[in-house]
Amino acid sequence: MNYNIALLGIIEVVSAISIGIFILALTYKIVQFVGEKYYGIKEFNHAYSIFTAAIILSVGLMVSGVIQPLISSFRLLNKEEGTLLLAFKYIGTGAVYIAIAYVAAVLIGLISTFLYSKLTPIDEFEEIRKNNIGVAIIVSAILITLTMLSKSGVVMIIEALIPYPQLPPTGF
Amino acid sequence: MKNIFRTLGYGIVIYIVFSFLINLIKLSKREHAYCDEYSQVNPFTKDAHHFRYWRLGDKRGDFCTDYESIFKLSEERSLNRTEMVLDEDDYHNFWGTVYMKLVAQSHGDLDFIADSLLNISTSMGMDASTLAELTVSFIQDIPYSYVLGDDCGNRNTQGFDCIGNQAYGILSPYEFLHTLYGDCDTRAVLLYAILQKMNFDPMIVVSDEYAHAMLALNIPSSGDYIEHGKKKYYFWETTGAGWPIGMLPPDCSNVNYWKIALVNEL
């Protein structure tokens, strides 16, 4: 058994679970808060549940792109001498990457719902509040599609922050 | 307030877990050595004596070795390279054939360096992955130089050393060890030959799009890889120090642009 690879795998699993729990709980709370404060949705109906699930899936998809760059950063940060400093830097790096992905996911969510509401004559949130499942499914599909389309770009932005070693200009 | 404490507690638990895991990785640290890095060239025979000092990418160890290289043998390999006749016109096959011939010509030339690295590995009780890392980091540590088929004057070398008018724009493994001039494919060929001698399963990959060549190695690892015969060969950048296995540089990270040039099919 390769000891270091196993440890790297455990670090990846622990990172994914801790990021997942934190991000999903935060998203759920925000959606609950926004729904209640701005749209008066106190109890989740089916339509709002579908919409909430789409937001969570969208955020999850976007933030999942952080794991690989984070592990790459860890492998490069591993040059640092102290364990506690390295753990601190790793968590700090993770926080920055997650923040970027999270902000991107929120922006995409806002833009997609805003664009869709401008394209159609109906008020989508009013329809979701009234438990219009059809509208909820369509808005959710737009949200997830836009997230999938923009994910690689966001991952590329995060990758630009990885402290890669210097390379000479290549060429045969 | 309760939520803030809960979040803080969650953060502290995560911090402790990561510190513990990182500490486990750090436990595998090894002894450090230090020596000067220089080369002595005999003015009459032009034979060289190289003293090398390098470290693993994650600073798990510093290592020293020295070796002597013979000018006449280097010249002979240079002549062999110049006399190579190739009729391949496909890009990957062409480079694959060049690399294969260079590896075949260097048979027996590289025993001294493979033995030296194996001795270090045995004395420190390294596993196979660390031996591969030791070997690749030894080559990564040698500063990059351009090796061109035409004159160096035609190229902006951006401050890097350049050796021009070399057949196929590459040096053979022994020439590289003698001169310490090596570009991407020169390094990849030398590493392929040494790792093969050590019974590893290496591969050389080339990319027309990125105008670059790289080593790939079939060992248990993580990250970017190219699949061949149900086996995973992890990319390994060799032109700069500190690049770990399975990490493609961001400027050449599209795996689809990398093609296999040379692999041991047995």
Quick description:
The complex is a heterodimer of chains A (about 170) and B (about 270). With about 170 residues, chain A is mostly helical.
Mean pLDDT of chain B: 88
Shape of chain A: elongated
Distance between the ends of chain A: 38 Å
Percent strand of chain B equals 15-25%
- Profile the largest sheet of chain A: none
How does this model look, in words?
The complex is a heterodimer of chains A (172) and B (266). In chain A, 34% of the residues are buried. The model of chain A has no long low-confidence stretch (mean pLDDT 84). With 172 residues, chain A is mostly helical. Chain A is built from 5 helices and no strands. Chain A has helices at residues 3-39, 46-77, 83-119, 124-129, 133-159. Chain B has a domain at 38-200. The mean pLDDT of chain B is 88. In chain B, the strands form 3 sheets. In chain B, strands 8-9-7-6-10 form a 5-stranded antiparallel beta sheet. In chain B, strands 1-2-3 form a 3-stranded antiparallel beta sheet. Chain B starts with a helix and ends with a strand. The interface between A and B is large, with 39 and 49 residues.
Could you name the key traits of this structure?
heterodimer; A: 172 residues; mainly alpha; elongated; B: 266 residues; alpha+beta; 5-stranded antiparallel beta sheet; 3-stranded antiparallel beta sheet; 7 helices; 10 strands; 37% helix; globular
